[in-house]
Design a protein that fits this description.
The chain has about 450 residues and is mainly alpha-helical. The chain has a single domain, classed as Growth Hormone, Chain: A (Up-down Bundle), CATH 1.20.1250.
């Protein structure tokens, strides 16, 4: 398959995934509106996110292994089929309980969990496919396009979600989600994705199931600076997830429950990410890449801190735009770094480990944030002791959640700055060799217990 046809395959895959994500986002927002109106609390919303994140923590290394060992297109097809089944079950359950308005929330949590399991298998397969479909000199642009999938769907979906929810309700939104899933699945069925050749590094990790499952972790750990960068992202993700999971209730509280205002701010947030993805695709980032990866996180964290202090809808829109603008650059450059340093037939596992480690503590934050907001921070706003925080975050509805944004944002900015200034990070790309994409002959198979050269990079 020639390079131009591979690129067309990549763009077709991305287009179909964006289309599917728009449907999913419409359904998710409609369900969020329904949940918040039904319960008036942040905790049920957070529990949906909690059950959707658990599979990423448990099965990402297994999904990465399958992305390396199986045909990557088949992995993505199975992932879409599983999500279609979950959406269909949820739709039928809502229809069944609609006459009595007694839909049991546990079924929503169950479907979120099941769909997340299948989604986990798709992400490493898609990310690892970039190496086989996109030449190296186009890879930053390709990764920036991947980073725009979610924001672009988030930019388009809120307006449609508001109209969908108003005219055809949550059931109509789920029908749209189901149809877009099917379209994405059909596209994956008709394209061809080349599989990577086996390399010496990949052959070195063959063995028992346990060895293969944890192979991505051991490979990443051998590349010590990259490993510690991933650990930094683990902590930063914890802080951003704690603040991000309350975005809908926070914005609704700050805007007095105005769904239209929420839609505008949410759209501006996603517009920032879309334009940020376009910008990094045009610019290409810095060399070394670390000078883009962590400064972008620092800027986003500062914007989140300021968003927690803001009560004006106009300023919230501007700050959410500026908060999301740098993240595509950070993520695209991080992916390009991994695709450059890691053997192609191990990238599924390494991306699986990246997802798993970055999400390590996120479920804990989801379990803690709901009760913290509903039972501690928001009630504290009405107490006399809040006077010390009022000049920073205000004293109206949403101020308690604003304080959480300030704490999380400032902590993420400080941590990222400290890690960025470490010499180990500054010299990471010089000390870690690029991986040469050359399959190893069978005779070069390492002896038992012997690391191949790719598994033992020189790290100062």
């Amino acid at each position: 398959m020639d390079a131009s046809k591979n690129l067309r395959t990549f763009y077709l895959l991305v287009f179909s995934q964006v289309f599917s994500l728009i449907g999913s986002r419409i359904s998710t927002i409609a369900l969020s509106f329904w949940l918040f109106e039904k319960t008036g609390e942040a905790t049920p919303l957070i529990l949906v996110h909690f059950f959707a994140i658990i599979p990423q923590l448990i099965t990402s290394n297994i999904s990465g292994l399958l992305a390396d060992r199986w045909d990557r297109r088949s992995v993505m097809v199975v992932a879409d089929v599983g999500q279609v089944i979950g959406s269909l079950f949820l739709l039928l359950s809502f229809i069944y309980h609609a006459p009595t308005d007694s839909f049991p929330l546990w079924q929503l949590y169950l479907v979120a969990f099941i769909q997340a399991i299948f989604s986990v298998f798709q992400t490493p397969a898609l990310n690892a496919s970039v190496t086989m479909l996109v030449p190296d000199d186009h890879r930053v642009r390709a990764n920036s396009i991947l980073q725009m999938q979610g924001p672009l769907s988030g930019l388009i979906a809120p307006a449609f979600a508001g109209m969908t929810y108003a005219f055809i309700g949550v059931i109509g939104a789920m029908i749209i989600d189901l149809l877009t899933f099917i379209v994405a699945m059909v596209v994956i069925l008709i394209v061809r994705i080349p599989n990577p050749p086996e390399t010496a590094a990949g052959r070195a990790l063959r063995g028992s199931l346990t060895k293969e499952i944890f192979g991505g972790f051991s490979y990443l750990y051998a590349m010590r600076p990259l490993f510690w960068l991933v650990i930094t992202f683990t902590v930063v993700n914890l802080l951003f997830s704690a603040a991000g999971v309350i975005t809908l209730p926070y914005l609704l509280a700050r805007t007095g429950g105005d769904h239209a205002a929420y839609g505008v701010v949410s759209s501006l947030s996603n517009l920032g990410a879309v334009l940020g993805g376009i910008a990094i695709g045009i610019w290409g980032g810095t060399r070394p890449r670390i000078h883009t990866i962590l400064p972008a996180v620092i800027i986003g964290a500062i914007m989140m801190t300021l968003a927690g202090m803001t009560q004006s809808v106009v300023l919230l829109g501007a700050l959410y735009f500026l908060m999301m603008f740098p993240f595509p650059a950070s993520n695209a450059m991080m992916m390009a770094l991994i695709q450059t340093k890691v053997a192609p037939d191990l990238q599924g596992r390494v991306f699986g480990v990246l997802i798993q480690l970055s999400m390590l503590f996120v479920p804990i934050s989801y379990l803690l944030v709901g009760p913290l907001v509903d039972q501690v921070l928001e009630p504290a706003v009405m107490q006399s002791g809040w006077a010390g925080f009022a000049p920073i975050v205000g004293s109206g509805a949403g101020s308690g959640m604003g304080l959480l944004l300030v704490i999380c944002g400032s902590s993420a900015a400080l941590l990222s700055l400290v890690v960025y200034l470490l010499p180990m990070m500054q010299n990471m790309e010089k000390n870690l060799p690029d991986y040469a994409v050359t399959p190893a002959p069978k005779s070069e198979q390492p002896l038992a217990g012997e690391l191949s050269p790719e598994l033992s990079p020189s790290v100062n």
